């Protein structure tokens, strides 16, 4: 994977006025393409006007032609309107759930679903669960083993360990990444990876030991993360990206009293983005999920290494 940065400069000050980072993803399985930005949940072109986007789009067209690539994908959050008339098709598969940290956590908790969330927070705390922040690579490896177990149980390919290792090495020293762990009797039974930027804390990866499910480890970790985000002065707690086809996960996140917004993806050339297309993708993923639930963990890890080289 190689990166390119398209930038506009102000003629008077030579300062950067707009930018679009794109990465070349080489794949014999899904065709080579340019993606802004691979693996990212929330990302926007750094533009503020339609005129800037049109200029960057022209630069992007020149870049993809010079690289011999026809496919481009841009993921957005707040700047979707700037791409509407830029020659892309819009995919509506993903949603983003978040809560505003505008009151004390105990007050905020009153907005959560009483039986599905509030009651289970109380049960988790009474189960003698404790939380702590990961401090070493051994903590990261323990979390990754839970990640492998969780992804196998759900039937999803696990991200490669080197992905988490790179995040840890690059962002943890500056405090932009935190690994929140849940323990019972000093045994790590769950973990939640958090990314921090500006006013937002994003819950990116959740993993837990299913044998402790009755203790509601997942809900405990989200609750502890919300409290940490509030007390560190952040304004938004982000539950991450969810496919609209994942009905149970959509419901779970809604029960936290979240606000839900679109996370549009834009494609060039035009790709099908209607409900039938989303359903077709869901069916293909369902077949992969059925496979991954039955293969050994080592095999699922190898499948994950292959999968994330092509699907980012």
How would you describe this protein?
This protein is of the alpha+beta class. It has two domains: 2-94 and 263-307, Aminopeptidase (3-Layer(aba) Sandwich), CATH 3.40.630; 96-261, Gcn5-related N-acetyltransferase (GNAT) (Aminopeptidase). The protein is 38% helix and 27% strand. The protein contains nine helices and 13 strands. The chain has helices at residues 50-67, 105-109, 114-126, 137-154, 161-171, 217-231, 247-254, 275-292, 297-310; strands at residues 2-9, 16-25, 33-36, 71-75, 89-91, 94-100, 130-133, 177-184, 187-197, 200-208, 236-243, 259-262, 265-268. The chain has a seven-stranded mixed β-sheet with strand order 7-8-9-10-11-6-12, with helices on both faces. The chain has a six-stranded mixed β-sheet with strand order 1-2-3-4-13-5, covered by helices on one side. β8 and β9 form a beta hairpin. The longest helix is centred in the first third of the chain and has 18 residues, at 50-67. The protein starts with a strand and ends with a helix.
């Amino acid at each position: 994977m190689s990166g390119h940065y398209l930038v506009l400069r102000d003629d008077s000050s030579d300062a950067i006025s707009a930018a679009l980072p794109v990465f070349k993803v080489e794949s014999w399985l899904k065709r080579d393409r340019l993606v802004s930005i691979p693996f990212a949940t929330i990302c926007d072109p750094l533009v503020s006007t339609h005129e800037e986007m049109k200029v960057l789009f022209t630069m992007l067209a020149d870049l993809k032609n010079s690289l011999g690539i026809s496919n481009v994908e841009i993921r957005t959050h707040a700047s979707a309107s700037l791409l509407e008339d830029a020659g892309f098709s819009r995919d509506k598969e993903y949603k983003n759930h978040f809560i505003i940290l505008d009151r004390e956590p105990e007050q905020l908790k009153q907005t959560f679903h009483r039986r599905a969330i509030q009651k289970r927070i109380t049960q988790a705390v009474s189960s003698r669960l404790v939380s702590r922040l990961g401090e070493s690579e051994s903590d990261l490896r323990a979390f990754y083993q839970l990640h492998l177990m969780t992804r196998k149980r759900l039937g999803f390919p696990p991200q490669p360990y080197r992905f988490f290792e790179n995040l840890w090495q690059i962002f943890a020293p500056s405090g932009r990444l935190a690994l929140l762990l849940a323990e019972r009797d000093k045994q790590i039974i769950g973990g939640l990876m958090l990314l921090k930027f500006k006013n937002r804390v994003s819950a990116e990866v959740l993993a837990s030991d299913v044998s402790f499910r009755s203790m509601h480890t997942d809900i405990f970790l989200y609750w502890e993360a919300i409290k940490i985000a509030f007390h560190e002065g952040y304004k938004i707690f982000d539950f991450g990206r969810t496919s609209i086809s994942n009905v149970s996960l959509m419901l779970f996140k809604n029960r936290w009293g979240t606000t839900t917004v679109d996370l549009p993806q834009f494609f060039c050339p035009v790709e099908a983005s209607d409900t039938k297309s989303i359903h077709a993708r869901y069916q293909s993923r369902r077949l992969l999920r059925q496979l991954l639930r039955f293969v050994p963990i080592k095999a699922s890890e190898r499948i994950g290494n292959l999968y994330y080289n092509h699907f980012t």
